[in-house]
Design brief:
The protein is α/β, with parallel strands linked by helices. The protein is built from 11 helices and 8 strands. It binds zinc ion.
Length: 296
């Protein structure tokens, strides 16, 4: 997919509705209320009428696009920009590109991002790299002492399967209990190998099925044969570039949503149908109400 193709294929409301209909009901239109397939199309209102229960609905009913005041083609461009930009895209950039208000752009980005959340992530296995990093915030006053530097930052833990998916979480501490719980929450119990740096909180993560290899960054050791954390380091550089380049006002409260977006893009890095698959996720996603977003 590229932007020109996108405009050709989805440049009108009708074309957007067409693809949404295909993706939502691949086996033919089906009533969302009673699941009957006996439905009549009311062409001029873009609606359907269920012959069984008389419910009238559109392809947008019950989806994230329901009640939207924004043209569907703008939604499509926004989705395209979010999934295709390596570093993500800021609400300000979205505002300029779509010609909408900042508030509309900001809300739109958040709704699309919320739909990218993986509800039932499959356990990671094989060789896993685990690390933690600090993002966001700025050191304020008092020099660059470590405590001061970290005060306004959030901690993110990451675990990545070599050749597979990444999972990211905001964590509150980097102690043993937190990091072990994070790893156990995402790794298959029979994972072959977990690679971390020398941070002591990772000690004891090995068991009968799982080996633990340590790469000692403090001693300037970065690669020992297959033992390295380059994959998760790459994820951190993507995260840092997107925080620096796109999300100037990245607040701790929305960090989880940004992490979900990064995960979705990273985990679909080789997926040629990423745009289509993102549309499918959006159709199936719960709507994110503006009031819930700002209250969160
Ligand atoms: Zn019905």
């Amino acid at each position: 997919m590229n932007l020109v193709k996108l405009m050709d294929e989805f440049g009108t409301d009708d074309k957007c509705r067409g693809i949404l209909e295909e993706l939502r009901w691949p086996d033919g239109v089906c009533c969302p209320r009673c699941e009957s397939k006996k439905v009549s199309r009311i062409k001029k209102r873009d609606q359907f009428d269920c012959d069984e229960c008389r419910y009238q609905f559109s392809v947008l009913s019950g989806t994230i696009f329901h009640d939207t005041h924004l043209a569907l083609k703008k939604w499509f461009v926004a989705i395209y920009l979010i999934v295709e930009s390596k570093k993500g895209i800021s609400a300000n950039q979205m505002k300029r590109t779509l010609g909408v208000s900042y508030k509309t752009a900001w809300y739109l980005c958040h709704r699309i991002r919320a739909a990218m959340t993986e509800m039932n992530p499959k356990p990671l296995e094989g060789t896993l790299e685990v690390d933690e990093t600090y993002v966001g915030g700025k050191a304020t006053g008092g020099g660059l002492g470590k405590g001061n530097y970290l005060k306004n930052k959030s901690i993110v833990a990451g675990i990545v399967e070599r050749g597979g998916d990444v999972r990211l979480s905001k964590i509150s501490k980097t102690d043993r209990r937190t990091l072990h719980a994070f790893i156990k929450g995402f790794a298959h119990p029979k994972t072959k190998l977990i690679i971390t740096d020398e941070w002591q909180a990772y000690r004891g993560i090995a068991d009968a099925d799982t080996e633990h290899a340590v790469i000692n960054h403090k001693r300037k050791e970065y690669v020992r044969g297959d033992i390295h954390t380059n994959t998760i380091d790459n994820v951190w550089s993507l995260l840092k570039r997107s925080v620096a380049g796109s999300y100037h006002k990245l607040s701790a409260k929305h960090l989880d949503a940004y992490l979900d977006e990064l995960e979705w893009r990273f985990n679909n890095r080789a997926n040629p149908y990423l745009f289509r698959d993102t549309l499918i996720k959006l159709i199936g996603a719960l709507n994110l109400e503006y009031k819930d977003l700002i209250a969160a």
